[in-house]
Amino acid sequence: MQYLHNIGTYFLMIVEMFRKPTKWSVMKQLILKDIDDLVIGSIGIVAFISFFVGGVVTIQTALNIDNPLIPRSLVGFATRQSVILEFAPTFISIIMAGKVGSFITSSIGTMRVTEQIDALEVMGINALNYLVFPKFIALTLYPFVISIAMFLGIMGGLAACVFGNYASMDDYITGIQQDFEPFHMAYAFIKTLLFAFVLATVPSYHGFYMKGGALEVGEASTTSFVWTSVVIILLNYILTQMLLS
Amino acid sequence: MIEVTNLEKSFGDAHILKGISTTFEKGKTNLVIGQSGSGKTVFLKCLLGLFDYEKGKIAYEGQVFAELSEAEKRNMRAKIGMVFQGSALFDSMTIEENVMFPLQMFTKQSKSEMQDRANFVLNRVKLKDANKKMPSEASGGMQKRVAIARAIVNNPKYLFCDEPNSGLDPKTAIVIDNLIKEITEEYNITTVINTHDMNSVMEIGDKIVFLKDGLKAWEGSKDTIFRTDNEVVTDFVYSSNLFKKVRRMYIEDNS
Question: Where, by residue number, does the polypeptide cross the bilayer (chain A) (predicted)?
Fold first, then answer.
């Protein structure tokens, strides 16, 4: 029953988030701050991980192709497919659940335990709109981060391929252009946008409705990471079944 | 003036407020006292509209808060200033931005007008040079003064304070008490303070409401509290030997 209650509260939170909007002059500043904290601040770690994981995918694919009849361009093809379809949208979103999700939960949770949310409510401000809505808007730029992850993942693969002598640069580039389905990009970005919504709202829910003190803020961050990851993985399965099968 | 009539509030099976009636008058510092767990904070949060209640009514100048429309509630809340126990300053803003916040949200003033007003109230609470500091760089007493400045910046009609002296040394606590008292009289606002601090009771209690187990056990003022025979009140207020002596001396001097 508690799960049902929590799910119900989560959806009510989403409805409430769009009600009683905060003054635009204030909201604009909040959105810009959240873009900086959540999107711009994540580019570094996303770039680093994408480049090296792209390289690892390439090396592992190359090492597993020992049949001389299979063209070496398959290394580029497999890297592109892995990075665009799964690694960039899903794997990076799980990492973001840890980085951005924990930040959102702990910052909102700290505001809860230090009565800052009560202060907003006493002033008649819709605290959910003030705190969660700008994060949701900021994370609509999340596909931009994922585009960088896709590009750097494939570039990491190219670097690993060329420097490790697994295939020539021409083979790799032929591979990444081979049988390209534009719909795969649409699929990846549809997933990304939905994951962005999950990344903004699930951690906010855990921070906003937490009870207790500093210790509970830490617990809420951990719980938030677990549930954000679970929701992303379930959504990933459902969307893949719906869009690709 | 705030009128509270037969207020009842429960959390599940726990009956926290069991029918409290009282009035809080304009221009006076009204203190709500009682032991931990007596229902003071729940009472204050009901007054602020943060908690719904099951029975009774709370009327601000005759307007019953629970019966107001959302827009009317928002207007009413703009007239309320609140000083929280932990100050509740926004960590991500400077002291000046914290004080300007209610103006940004509820007025159409220009930035310079808001800054002027923020600096005026910061001066009023004797925090002239702290504008650009972050709350984390301010001491507990300074944070309380910033919270008071934020609460009064929009000229509220009602000021609520939850344990404004908690965690402060006695000297700073007296400064905060006097500041609240001065502001209440200067701006003619209705102030309600939740406190455990007996110094505050003796110094600024124009009206004192004593809660015990969710009921109003006594009400009076800083003058009448010395003479009361109500054992529940005297047990609580004069629980220390020092206050017992003070009370005895006061009664002897005034008899």
Answer: 38-63, 83-105, 117-138, 144-164, 185-205, 225-244
The C-alpha atoms of residue B1 and residue A195 are separated, in whole angstroms, by 51
User: Amino acid identity, residue A185?
Assistant: M
What is the edge-to-edge ordering of all strands in the sheet holding B158-162?
Answer: B80-83, B158-162, B190-195, B29-34, B207-212, B215-220
Q: How far is B205 from chain A (nearest CA, A)?
A: 24
- Give counts: helices (H), strands (E), chain A: 13, 0
Backbone angles phi, psi at A193, to 5 degrees: -65, -40
Burial class (CB in 10 A: 0-12, 13-18, 19+), A68: exposed
Map out the domains of chain B as residue ranges: 2-223
Query: Which among A110, A116, A118 is the nearest to B50, CB-wise?
Result: A118
C-beta of residue B194 within 8 angstroms of C-beta of residue B82: no
pLDDT in tens, B158-208: 999 998 888 778 888 888 888 889 889 988 999 999 988 888 888 888 999
* Whether B37 contacts chain A with CB within 8 A: no
Whether the per-residue pLDDT at B74 is higher than 90: the answer is no
> What span, in angstroms and rounded, lies between the C-alpha atoms of A191 and A83?
14
State how far residue A229 is from chain B, nearest Cα, in angstroms. Answer: 28
Q: Which of B74, B85, B86 sits opposite A124 (nearest CB)?
A: B74
* Residues across chain B: 255
**B234 vs A132, residue with greater confidence:** A132
> Which of the following CATH numbers is that of domain B2-223: 3.30.70.330, 3.20.20.70, 3.40.50.300, 3.30.1330.10?
3.40.50.300
Are B50 and A121 a contacting pair at CB < 8 A?
yes
Q: Please, are residues A178 and A78 in contact by the beta-carbon 8 Å criterion?
A: no
Residue B108 gets which letter from DSSP? Answer: -
Average pLDDT, chain A: 94
Beta bridge partners of B193: B31, B161
Which alpha helices (DSSP H) does B108-204 contain, by range?
Answer: 111-124, 140-152, 170-187, 198-204
Q: What is the CA radius of gyration of chain B?
A: 19
Phi, psi of B130 (to 5 degrees): -105, 5
Token reading at A93: 């979103």
Q: Give the integer Cα–Cα distance in Å for A213 and B196.
A: 22
Residue that is written with structure tokens 């389905």 in the block: A181
pLDDT of residue A131: 96
ipTM value = 0.81
Length of chain A: 245
Distance (Å, rounded) from C-alpha A154 to C-alpha A223? 33
What single string gives the DSSP state of each residue in A86-133?
IIIIIIHHHHHIIIIIHHHHHHHHHHHHTTHHHHHHHTT--HHHHHTH
